[in-house]
Amino acid sequence: MAKGGTQHVAVVGAGVFGAWTAHHLQQAGHKITLIDAWGPAHSRASSGGESRLTRATYGKDEIYTRMAMNSLPQWKALSAITGLPIFIPAGILFFFPTEEPYVRDTIAAHRKFGLPTDVLTQAEMVHRFPTIDFDGIKIGLYEPGFGALMARRAVLALVDQLVRAGGTYLNGLVEPPAVDGNSRIYELRLSSGERVRADRFVFAAGPWLPKLFLDVVGRKILATRQEVFFFAPPAGDGRFLPGAMPCWADFNGGDMFYGFPDLENRGVKFAHDAHGTEVNPDTLDRQPTEAALAEVVAFRDRRFPALKGAPLTEARVCQYENSSNGDFLIDLHPGWQNVLLVGGGSGHGFKHGPEVGRYAAGRLFGTIEAEPRFSLASKSEAHHREVH
Ligand SMILES: Cc1cc2nc3c(=O)[nH]c(=O)nc-3n(C[C@H](O)[C@H](O)[C@H](O)COP(=O)(O)OP(=O)(O)OC[C@H]3O[C@@H](n4cnc5c(N)ncnc54)[C@H](O)[C@@H]3O)c2cc1C
User: Fold this and answer.
1) Strand partners, 183
2) pTM over 0.90
3) What residue ranges line ligand 1, CB within 6 angstroms?
Protein backbone atom coordinates (compact mmCIF):
# COMPACT_ATOMS: atom_id res chain seq x y z
CA MET A 1 0.00 0.00 0.00
CA ALA A 2 1.28 3.45 -0.90
CA LYS A 3 2.33 5.81 1.88
CA GLY A 4 -0.66 8.05 2.48
CA GLY A 5 -2.93 5.68 0.57
CA THR A 6 -3.33 4.79 -3.04
CA GLN A 7 -3.55 7.71 -5.40
CA HIS A 8 -4.29 7.90 -9.09
CA VAL A 9 -1.31 9.20 -11.05
CA ALA A 10 -1.48 10.14 -14.73
CA VAL A 11 1.88 9.91 -16.49
CA VAL A 12 2.16 11.69 -19.83
CA GLY A 13 4.81 10.20 -22.13
CA ALA A 14 5.69 6.53 -22.54
CA GLY A 15 9.36 6.99 -23.30
CA VAL A 16 12.02 5.54 -21.04
CA PHE A 17 11.53 8.24 -18.37
CA GLY A 18 7.74 8.02 -18.25
CA ALA A 19 7.68 4.22 -18.37
CA TRP A 20 10.14 3.81 -15.47
CA THR A 21 8.40 6.53 -13.46
CA ALA A 22 5.09 4.76 -13.97
CA HIS A 23 6.75 1.49 -12.96
CA HIS A 24 8.08 2.86 -9.68
CA LEU A 25 4.79 4.59 -8.86
CA GLN A 26 2.95 1.36 -9.49
CA GLN A 27 5.42 -0.54 -7.31
CA ALA A 28 4.66 1.98 -4.56
CA GLY A 29 1.01 0.98 -4.76
CA HIS A 30 -0.49 3.74 -6.87
CA LYS A 31 -3.02 3.46 -9.66
CA ILE A 32 -1.42 4.48 -12.94
CA THR A 33 -2.70 5.81 -16.26
CA LEU A 34 0.14 6.16 -18.76
CA ILE A 35 -0.68 8.20 -21.86
CA ASP A 36 1.23 8.66 -25.11
CA ALA A 37 0.30 10.40 -28.34
CA TRP A 38 2.04 7.90 -30.63
CA GLY A 39 2.74 4.86 -28.46
CA PRO A 40 5.58 3.58 -26.24
CA ALA A 41 9.04 4.23 -27.79
CA HIS A 42 7.56 5.12 -31.17
CA SER A 43 9.86 5.92 -34.08
CA ARG A 44 10.11 9.64 -33.39
CA ALA A 45 10.52 9.40 -29.60
CA SER A 46 14.03 9.84 -28.22
CA SER A 47 13.67 6.37 -26.70
CA GLY A 48 12.59 4.85 -30.01
CA GLY A 49 16.00 3.71 -31.26
CA GLU A 50 17.40 0.21 -31.52
CA SER A 51 20.09 0.41 -28.85
CA ARG A 52 21.56 2.69 -26.21
CA LEU A 53 24.88 2.55 -24.38
CA THR A 54 25.04 2.02 -20.68
CA ARG A 55 28.23 2.99 -18.86
CA ALA A 56 29.32 4.42 -15.56
CA THR A 57 32.17 6.44 -17.10
CA TYR A 58 31.18 10.05 -16.39
CA GLY A 59 34.33 11.97 -15.43
CA LYS A 60 33.61 14.48 -12.67
CA ASP A 61 29.86 13.83 -12.80
CA GLU A 62 29.82 11.17 -10.13
CA ILE A 63 26.07 11.63 -9.74
CA TYR A 64 25.55 9.91 -13.09
CA THR A 65 28.10 7.19 -12.29
CA ARG A 66 26.00 6.34 -9.26
CA MET A 67 22.72 6.49 -11.18
CA ALA A 68 24.05 4.26 -13.97
CA MET A 69 25.38 1.83 -11.38
CA ASN A 70 22.07 1.71 -9.49
CA SER A 71 20.06 1.46 -12.70
CA LEU A 72 21.97 -1.55 -14.00
CA PRO A 73 20.45 -4.19 -11.65
CA GLN A 74 17.00 -2.88 -12.54
CA TRP A 75 17.77 -3.27 -16.25
CA LYS A 76 19.07 -6.77 -15.59
CA ALA A 77 15.91 -7.66 -13.69
CA LEU A 78 13.76 -6.43 -16.57
CA SER A 79 15.97 -8.25 -19.07
CA ALA A 80 15.60 -11.47 -17.10
CA ILE A 81 11.83 -11.57 -17.47
CA THR A 82 11.50 -10.67 -21.15
CA GLY A 83 11.78 -13.23 -23.92
CA LEU A 84 14.60 -11.48 -25.75
CA PRO A 85 17.38 -9.68 -23.88
CA ILE A 86 17.19 -6.01 -22.98
CA PHE A 87 20.65 -5.73 -21.45
CA ILE A 88 23.53 -7.07 -23.54
CA PRO A 89 26.71 -7.26 -21.41
CA ALA A 90 29.09 -6.47 -24.26
CA GLY A 91 31.40 -4.34 -22.10
CA ILE A 92 32.22 -0.74 -22.94
CA LEU A 93 35.55 0.86 -23.80
CA PHE A 94 36.14 4.62 -23.62
CA PHE A 95 39.49 5.69 -25.11
CA PHE A 96 41.45 8.94 -24.89
CA PRO A 97 44.51 10.60 -26.48
CA THR A 98 45.73 11.83 -23.07
CA GLU A 99 45.16 11.04 -19.44
CA GLU A 100 42.82 14.01 -19.12
CA PRO A 101 40.87 14.98 -15.98
CA TYR A 102 37.84 13.05 -17.27
CA VAL A 103 39.92 9.85 -17.06
CA ARG A 104 41.28 10.54 -13.60
CA ASP A 105 37.89 11.60 -12.24
CA THR A 106 36.23 8.48 -13.66
CA ILE A 107 38.84 6.21 -12.11
CA ALA A 108 38.40 7.94 -8.73
CA ALA A 109 34.60 7.59 -8.87
CA HIS A 110 34.82 3.95 -9.89
CA ARG A 111 37.21 3.18 -7.04
CA LYS A 112 34.88 4.92 -4.61
CA PHE A 113 31.91 2.84 -5.77
CA GLY A 114 33.90 -0.37 -6.21
CA LEU A 115 33.07 -0.60 -9.90
CA PRO A 116 35.29 -3.00 -11.83
CA THR A 117 37.13 -0.99 -14.48
CA ASP A 118 40.24 -1.92 -16.44
CA VAL A 119 42.64 0.95 -17.07
CA LEU A 120 44.39 -0.01 -20.30
CA THR A 121 47.48 1.20 -22.14
CA GLN A 122 47.48 1.56 -25.90
CA ALA A 123 49.38 -1.75 -26.25
CA GLU A 124 46.84 -3.55 -24.08
CA MET A 125 43.95 -2.18 -26.11
CA VAL A 126 45.60 -3.17 -29.39
CA HIS A 127 45.93 -6.69 -28.02
CA ARG A 128 42.40 -6.97 -26.59
CA PHE A 129 40.43 -5.12 -29.26
CA PRO A 130 42.19 -5.80 -32.57
CA THR A 131 39.42 -4.40 -34.79
CA ILE A 132 40.06 -0.86 -33.50
CA ASP A 133 42.99 1.27 -34.70
CA PHE A 134 44.22 3.06 -31.57
CA ASP A 135 46.56 5.44 -33.39
CA GLY A 136 47.03 8.58 -31.24
CA ILE A 137 45.30 6.97 -28.25
CA LYS A 138 47.09 6.71 -24.94
CA ILE A 139 44.68 5.29 -22.41
CA GLY A 140 41.40 3.40 -22.23
CA LEU A 141 38.80 2.62 -19.58
CA TYR A 142 37.01 -0.68 -20.04
CA GLU A 143 33.90 -1.47 -18.00
CA PRO A 144 33.22 -5.18 -18.36
CA GLY A 145 29.90 -5.04 -16.50
CA PHE A 146 28.15 -2.52 -18.76
CA GLY A 147 27.24 -2.59 -22.45
CA ALA A 148 24.11 -2.12 -24.52
CA LEU A 149 20.40 -1.75 -23.84
CA MET A 150 17.82 -2.68 -26.46
CA ALA A 151 15.96 0.60 -26.20
CA ARG A 152 12.61 0.23 -27.93
CA ARG A 153 12.17 -3.31 -26.63
CA ALA A 154 12.88 -2.14 -23.08
CA VAL A 155 10.16 0.50 -23.11
CA LEU A 156 7.62 -1.83 -24.73
CA ALA A 157 8.38 -4.47 -22.09
CA LEU A 158 7.93 -1.99 -19.25
CA VAL A 159 4.58 -0.79 -20.54
CA ASP A 160 3.45 -4.37 -21.09
CA GLN A 161 4.42 -5.15 -17.51
CA LEU A 162 2.59 -2.08 -16.22
CA VAL A 163 -0.63 -3.11 -17.93
CA ARG A 164 -0.34 -6.75 -16.80
CA ALA A 165 0.00 -5.48 -13.23
CA GLY A 166 -3.26 -3.54 -13.52
CA GLY A 167 -2.09 -0.17 -14.88
CA THR A 168 -3.81 1.54 -17.81
CA TYR A 169 -2.14 2.57 -21.03
CA LEU A 170 -3.99 5.12 -23.15
CA ASN A 171 -3.21 6.37 -26.63
CA GLY A 172 -3.92 10.09 -26.72
CA LEU A 173 -2.52 13.55 -27.28
CA VAL A 174 -2.57 15.52 -24.02
CA GLU A 175 -3.21 19.23 -24.37
CA PRO A 176 -1.17 21.78 -22.40
CA PRO A 177 -2.89 22.24 -19.01
CA ALA A 178 -4.75 25.54 -18.79
CA VAL A 179 -3.45 28.13 -16.32
CA ASP A 180 -6.44 28.97 -14.10
CA GLY A 181 -4.94 30.39 -10.91
CA ASN A 182 -5.26 27.11 -8.99
CA SER A 183 -2.27 25.59 -7.24
CA ARG A 184 -3.18 22.11 -8.52
CA ILE A 185 -4.54 20.59 -11.66
CA TYR A 186 -7.37 18.11 -11.52
CA GLU A 187 -7.56 16.59 -14.98
CA LEU A 188 -5.91 16.29 -18.35
CA ARG A 189 -7.68 17.14 -21.58
CA LEU A 190 -6.93 15.00 -24.60
CA SER A 191 -7.30 16.23 -28.19
CA SER A 192 -10.08 13.63 -28.61
CA GLY A 193 -12.13 15.52 -26.03
CA GLU A 194 -11.61 12.79 -23.45
CA ARG A 195 -10.64 13.87 -19.91
CA VAL A 196 -8.43 12.01 -17.46
CA ARG A 197 -8.91 12.91 -13.81
CA ALA A 198 -6.10 12.05 -11.38
CA ASP A 199 -4.62 13.09 -8.04
CA ARG A 200 -1.12 13.75 -9.35
CA PHE A 201 0.46 14.18 -12.77
CA VAL A 202 3.86 13.49 -14.32
CA PHE A 203 4.84 15.01 -17.65
CA ALA A 204 7.72 13.04 -19.18
CA ALA A 205 7.24 14.32 -22.71
CA GLY A 206 10.87 14.23 -23.89
CA PRO A 207 11.54 16.74 -26.68
CA TRP A 208 7.87 17.78 -26.59
CA LEU A 209 8.07 19.01 -22.97
CA PRO A 210 8.69 22.65 -24.03
CA LYS A 211 5.53 22.57 -26.19
CA LEU A 212 3.43 21.54 -23.20
CA PHE A 213 5.04 24.10 -20.89
CA LEU A 214 6.09 26.96 -23.10
CA ASP A 215 6.39 29.47 -20.26
CA VAL A 216 8.00 27.27 -17.64
CA VAL A 217 10.31 25.07 -19.78
CA GLY A 218 10.51 26.93 -23.09
CA ARG A 219 14.05 27.08 -24.41
CA LYS A 220 15.50 25.44 -21.32
CA ILE A 221 15.19 22.21 -23.30
CA LEU A 222 16.25 22.27 -26.94
CA ALA A 223 15.95 19.39 -29.38
CA THR A 224 18.88 18.76 -31.72
CA ARG A 225 19.15 16.61 -34.82
CA GLN A 226 21.17 13.38 -34.37
CA GLU A 227 21.94 10.77 -37.02
CA VAL A 228 23.01 7.17 -36.50
CA PHE A 229 24.22 4.65 -39.08
CA PHE A 230 24.47 0.86 -39.26
CA PHE A 231 26.92 -1.00 -41.53
CA ALA A 232 27.04 -4.67 -42.54
CA PRO A 233 30.18 -6.44 -41.28
CA PRO A 234 32.12 -8.55 -43.78
CA ALA A 235 30.32 -11.84 -44.54
CA GLY A 236 31.10 -14.64 -42.12
CA ASP A 237 33.26 -12.35 -39.97
CA GLY A 238 32.62 -12.80 -36.24
CA ARG A 239 34.95 -10.00 -35.11
CA PHE A 240 32.13 -7.46 -34.85
CA LEU A 241 29.79 -9.54 -32.72
CA PRO A 242 29.19 -8.74 -29.04
CA GLY A 243 31.73 -10.70 -27.06
CA ALA A 244 34.39 -10.12 -29.70
CA MET A 245 33.84 -6.37 -29.97
CA PRO A 246 32.80 -4.06 -27.11
CA CYS A 247 30.57 -1.02 -27.15
CA TRP A 248 32.98 1.88 -27.39
CA ALA A 249 33.44 5.66 -27.38
CA ASP A 250 36.31 7.67 -28.82
CA PHE A 251 36.06 10.48 -26.28
CA ASN A 252 38.01 13.02 -28.34
CA GLY A 253 37.78 15.86 -25.79
CA GLY A 254 34.02 15.38 -25.41
CA ASP A 255 33.38 15.55 -29.17
CA MET A 256 32.64 11.84 -29.09
CA PHE A 257 32.11 9.23 -31.75
CA TYR A 258 30.61 6.07 -30.30
CA GLY A 259 29.25 2.77 -31.42
CA PHE A 260 28.07 -0.76 -30.84
CA PRO A 261 28.98 -4.22 -32.03
CA ASP A 262 26.63 -6.00 -34.43
CA LEU A 263 23.68 -6.45 -32.04
CA GLU A 264 21.11 -8.99 -33.20
CA ASN A 265 22.54 -8.81 -36.73
CA ARG A 266 21.29 -5.27 -37.26
CA GLY A 267 24.73 -4.06 -38.35
CA VAL A 268 27.64 -2.32 -36.65
CA LYS A 269 26.33 1.02 -35.36
CA PHE A 270 28.21 4.35 -35.44
CA ALA A 271 27.24 7.88 -34.42
CA HIS A 272 28.75 11.26 -33.66
CA ASP A 273 27.66 12.56 -30.27
CA ALA A 274 28.07 16.26 -31.18
CA HIS A 275 24.85 18.25 -30.97
CA GLY A 276 23.31 18.77 -34.39
CA THR A 277 21.15 21.69 -35.46
CA GLU A 278 18.16 22.74 -33.35
CA VAL A 279 15.00 21.01 -34.55
CA ASN A 280 11.29 20.67 -33.94
CA PRO A 281 10.49 17.00 -33.22
CA ASP A 282 7.21 17.24 -35.14
CA THR A 283 8.68 18.59 -38.36
CA LEU A 284 12.24 17.21 -38.23
CA ASP A 285 13.22 15.80 -41.64
CA ARG A 286 14.17 12.22 -40.78
CA GLN A 287 16.07 11.49 -43.96
CA PRO A 288 19.76 10.98 -43.18
CA THR A 289 22.14 13.48 -44.77
CA GLU A 290 25.09 12.72 -47.03
CA ALA A 291 27.24 15.02 -44.88
CA ALA A 292 26.59 13.11 -41.64
CA LEU A 293 27.11 9.78 -43.39
CA ALA A 294 30.41 10.97 -44.92
CA GLU A 295 31.62 12.14 -41.51
CA VAL A 296 30.82 8.81 -39.87
CA VAL A 297 32.32 6.80 -42.74
CA ALA A 298 35.56 8.81 -42.56
CA PHE A 299 35.76 8.11 -38.83
CA ARG A 300 34.86 4.44 -39.31
CA ASP A 301 37.50 3.90 -41.97
CA ARG A 302 40.17 5.44 -39.77
CA ARG A 303 39.36 3.66 -36.50
CA PHE A 304 37.82 0.43 -37.83
CA PRO A 305 39.79 -0.25 -41.03
CA ALA A 306 38.30 -3.75 -41.45
CA LEU A 307 34.94 -2.07 -42.10
CA LYS A 308 36.23 0.03 -45.01
CA GLY A 309 33.67 -0.28 -47.79
CA ALA A 310 31.08 -1.92 -45.51
CA PRO A 311 27.63 -1.22 -46.96
CA LEU A 312 25.18 1.00 -45.10
CA THR A 313 22.29 -1.15 -43.89
CA GLU A 314 20.18 1.37 -41.99
CA ALA A 315 20.16 4.94 -40.75
CA ARG A 316 18.02 6.76 -38.23
CA VAL A 317 17.48 10.43 -37.56
CA CYS A 318 16.43 11.16 -34.01
CA GLN A 319 16.69 14.07 -31.59
CA TYR A 320 18.37 14.73 -28.28
CA GLU A 321 16.29 16.79 -25.83
CA ASN A 322 19.06 18.84 -24.26
CA SER A 323 18.85 20.75 -21.03
CA SER A 324 21.11 23.78 -20.82
CA ASN A 325 24.08 21.83 -19.43
CA GLY A 326 23.10 18.16 -19.79
CA ASP A 327 21.64 17.71 -16.30
CA PHE A 328 18.19 16.19 -16.13
CA LEU A 329 15.09 18.17 -15.28
CA ILE A 330 13.07 16.40 -12.59
CA ASP A 331 11.18 18.93 -10.55
CA LEU A 332 7.73 19.99 -9.40
CA HIS A 333 5.98 22.54 -11.55
CA PRO A 334 6.45 25.98 -9.94
CA GLY A 335 2.71 26.74 -10.10
CA TRP A 336 1.08 23.33 -9.62
CA GLN A 337 2.12 21.35 -6.57
CA ASN A 338 0.78 18.04 -7.90
CA VAL A 339 2.62 18.20 -11.25
CA LEU A 340 6.13 16.85 -11.85
CA LEU A 341 8.19 17.69 -14.93
CA VAL A 342 10.65 15.03 -16.11
CA GLY A 343 12.98 15.43 -19.07
CA GLY A 344 16.24 16.78 -20.40
CA GLY A 345 17.79 13.36 -21.05
CA SER A 346 20.34 15.28 -23.15
CA GLY A 347 21.67 12.39 -25.21
CA HIS A 348 22.67 10.31 -22.18
CA GLY A 349 19.43 9.68 -20.33
CA PHE A 350 18.35 6.24 -21.42
CA LYS A 351 20.65 4.19 -19.20
CA HIS A 352 19.43 6.12 -16.16
CA GLY A 353 15.75 5.40 -16.79
CA PRO A 354 15.30 3.16 -13.72
CA GLU A 355 16.85 5.65 -11.32
CA VAL A 356 15.16 8.64 -12.97
CA GLY A 357 11.88 6.80 -12.43
CA ARG A 358 12.66 6.02 -8.80
CA TYR A 359 13.70 9.61 -8.08
CA ALA A 360 10.71 11.07 -9.97
CA ALA A 361 8.26 8.87 -8.05
CA GLY A 362 9.85 10.03 -4.79
CA ARG A 363 9.76 13.71 -5.78
CA LEU A 364 6.12 13.56 -6.79
CA PHE A 365 5.18 12.34 -3.32
CA GLY A 366 7.83 14.33 -1.43
CA THR A 367 9.52 11.22 -0.06
CA ILE A 368 12.99 11.90 -1.47
CA GLU A 369 15.41 14.76 -0.95
CA ALA A 370 15.54 17.17 -3.88
CA GLU A 371 18.75 17.02 -5.95
CA PRO A 372 19.68 20.61 -6.90
CA ARG A 373 21.16 19.52 -10.23
CA PHE A 374 17.74 18.27 -11.36
CA SER A 375 15.89 21.43 -10.41
CA LEU A 376 14.13 23.75 -12.82
CA ALA A 377 15.92 26.67 -11.16
CA SER A 378 19.30 25.26 -12.25
CA LYS A 379 18.24 25.28 -15.92
CA SER A 380 18.95 28.22 -18.18
CA GLU A 381 18.06 29.28 -21.70
CA ALA A 382 21.77 29.71 -22.48
CA HIS A 383 23.05 26.31 -23.53
CA HIS A 384 26.51 25.02 -22.75
CA ARG A 385 26.99 21.28 -22.53
CA GLU A 386 28.95 20.14 -19.50
CA VAL A 387 27.92 16.50 -18.96
CA HIS A 388 29.54 13.90 -21.21
C1 LIG B 1 20.36 9.04 -31.39
C2 LIG B 1 20.34 8.98 -29.90
C3 LIG B 1 21.30 8.27 -29.23
C4 LIG B 1 21.27 8.18 -27.84
N5 LIG B 1 22.20 7.43 -27.21
C6 LIG B 1 22.11 7.22 -25.89
C7 LIG B 1 22.97 6.28 -25.27
O8 LIG B 1 23.79 5.64 -25.92
N9 LIG B 1 22.84 6.09 -23.92
C10 LIG B 1 21.92 6.77 -23.19
O11 LIG B 1 21.86 6.53 -21.98
N12 LIG B 1 21.08 7.66 -23.75
C13 LIG B 1 21.15 7.90 -25.09
N14 LIG B 1 20.30 8.77 -25.70
C15 LIG B 1 19.38 9.58 -24.89
C16 LIG B 1 18.12 8.87 -24.50
O17 LIG B 1 17.68 8.01 -25.53
C18 LIG B 1 17.04 9.91 -24.17
O19 LIG B 1 17.56 10.83 -23.21
C20 LIG B 1 15.80 9.26 -23.61
O21 LIG B 1 15.33 8.26 -24.47
C22 LIG B 1 14.71 10.32 -23.39
O23 LIG B 1 13.53 9.66 -22.99
P24 LIG B 1 12.22 10.45 -22.65
O25 LIG B 1 11.30 9.46 -22.05
O26 LIG B 1 12.52 11.68 -21.89
O27 LIG B 1 11.68 10.99 -24.07
P28 LIG B 1 10.90 10.23 -25.26
O29 LIG B 1 11.42 8.89 -25.47
O30 LIG B 1 10.91 11.15 -26.44
O31 LIG B 1 9.43 10.07 -24.71
C32 LIG B 1 8.56 11.16 -24.60
C33 LIG B 1 7.18 10.66 -24.95
O34 LIG B 1 6.22 11.67 -24.65
C35 LIG B 1 5.19 11.59 -25.59
N36 LIG B 1 4.48 12.86 -25.63
C37 LIG B 1 5.01 14.08 -25.84
N38 LIG B 1 4.07 15.02 -25.78
C39 LIG B 1 2.90 14.38 -25.55
C40 LIG B 1 1.57 14.82 -25.39
N41 LIG B 1 1.23 16.12 -25.46
N42 LIG B 1 0.60 13.89 -25.18
C43 LIG B 1 0.91 12.58 -25.10
N44 LIG B 1 2.17 12.12 -25.24
C45 LIG B 1 3.15 13.01 -25.46
C46 LIG B 1 5.92 11.31 -26.90
O47 LIG B 1 5.07 10.74 -27.88
C48 LIG B 1 7.03 10.36 -26.45
O49 LIG B 1 6.68 9.01 -26.63
C50 LIG B 1 20.29 8.88 -27.10
C51 LIG B 1 19.31 9.62 -27.78
C52 LIG B 1 19.32 9.66 -29.16
C53 LIG B 1 18.25 10.43 -29.87
Assistant:
1) none
2) yes
3) 12-18, 35-38, 42, 45-47, 49, 52-53, 173-174, 204-208, 212, 226, 228, 318-320, 343, 345, 347-351
